[in-house]
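## tool: complex_structure
## caller: assistant
## args:
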Amino acid sequence: MSEDDLIALFAPRLPVTDAEVLGSGDDAAVVSVDGDLVVSTDMAVQDHDFRMEWSTGADVGWRVAMQNLADIDAMGAVPTALEVALAMPRDTEVEWVLSFADGLREACEPHGVGVVGGDLSGAAQIVVAVTALGETHGTDPVTRADAAPGDVIAVAGPLGAAAAGLAQLEQGTRVAPAAIDLFLRPQPRIGAGLEAALHGATAMMDLSDGLARDGARIARASEVRLAVESALVPVHEAASFTAQTMGVDALAWALGGGEDHHMVACFPRESAVPAGWVIVGVVEDGSGLTVDGAAPTVSGWDHFA
Amino acid sequence: MSEDDLIALFAPRLPVTDAEVLGSGDDAAVVSVDGDLVVSTDMAVQDHDFRMEWSTGADVGWRVAMQNLADIDAMGAVPTALEVALAMPRDTEVEWVLSFADGLREACEPHGVGVVGGDLSGAAQIVVAVTALGETHGTDPVTRADAAPGDVIAVAGPLGAAAAGLAQLEQGTRVAPAAIDLFLRPQPRIGAGLEAALHGATAMMDLSDGLARDGARIARASEVRLAVESALVPVHEAASFTAQTMGVDALAWALGGGEDHHMVACFPRESAVPAGWVIVGVVEDGSGLTVDGAAPTVSGWDHFA
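## result:
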């Protein structure tokens, strides 16, 4: 099948956006932007970030779209459009490619986000690079750098499900399918980031490498200490159930597991934390991230390194 | 070397832009945009689009940047920023990666374009995906779709050099190094596209697949015929010299060779064509592209298919 033929099948399945002034088919797309542009890029590489035996094309499309939407949301901005570059072996099934488009659409359509352009190419393995575009809506971008002592730390959703899903896939068990689904198709609540920005969040990011490591990134950027209390960390019930069945500690997944993509943010006071967010600790003078007052022991989530 | 260590070496070599409000290091970058955003994505894949034995890292960085800048210029827009995704094998030399950054900078810096963000990942081969961002400056984007009968067709630079360079590399000869250099580092005049837009260009694109095929794309999008006169087509002197030495027809390279990345545009009348552009034909009622009144014979540039 020629590239033109493939594009003719692929393009109609892609999500569209009201922000599109001119879509694909020319040298470049044109997108209307209100205010500053927020832009982020994330790749997904076969055998590095996904496995063909675990993920459908739609799962890969969903995940790479959602990771990028979460990055825009994590700035307190509103995603509008994606550019999608897809390199793949010549023998990649057309059905896989169309399923990939479906996953992009399923992730993007509820948020009014469209794929406005991209590129297709050959490669030895599937490599996807997505660039997400967004715009701020009345707030400054929320970086990682402005958390201050006295702030509270909160997360926008329960943690550990993606790690529990990965553990099941790696062990070939299926005790909590909901966790597997959340590993294959992360479900951060897109819009939580804008909500946090409107509530005065001082620092924010989405959790792609786990609360312990990502929280330490906020601590470093803001030159503060993030003091997390383990008893406050919301553990996803599918992670708890999986951990119980496997005889492991679900908290290790909640603190150390990546890929949940929920927002973690700091707020200047408890009363600023939006409904539905869970406070997990406080910001203090100092550096790094502590759990119950101590440096987190590596053992709990070392296997996610 | 860790990803953080690599980024610490890589990032300072990248070009910067005045449009950057917030650079890399957070979930997303923030770029100021004046008016509509013009966005384009192009990939370069090892062994598909470049070979390690022919191209340095800087050559690859230059080429993928320049392809993307040309796409933005081809809309009559001004490029401002790039997002760069780079996937590579673990054993890729750090020097290659830093050289790649140097090539990005060398291509971008003269145009005030910066790399504002991106992603690094592992892969079986080097895969680069670049998304270029730009903005219109007082003109509407120039698409491929508005050429009209009576327009003249013009190109912004001499053609065939990249094809002549590729031919030399494939044959292991080096009769015209300037052509090899232009294949490895295409030199479209960035800004020619904006110039054409300001002169009222009706349709435009950059020549990545050769005048014959790219011109046919304008013909299809505009529902007209592009009638090219071969005697008018400017052949790059390094292509002429290479062709003479090899005993082949330089015109085939000028019409059929890709990768020159010069602009081709249609203008409503001869007097609208900017200085330095060369008129190569006229737009007529009909469809497709003709050379000297006939469909171009495939034989001349079949080997570029």
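## assistant note: The longest strand of chain B covers residues 77-88. The two ends of chain B are 40 Å apart (CA to CA). Handing back to user.
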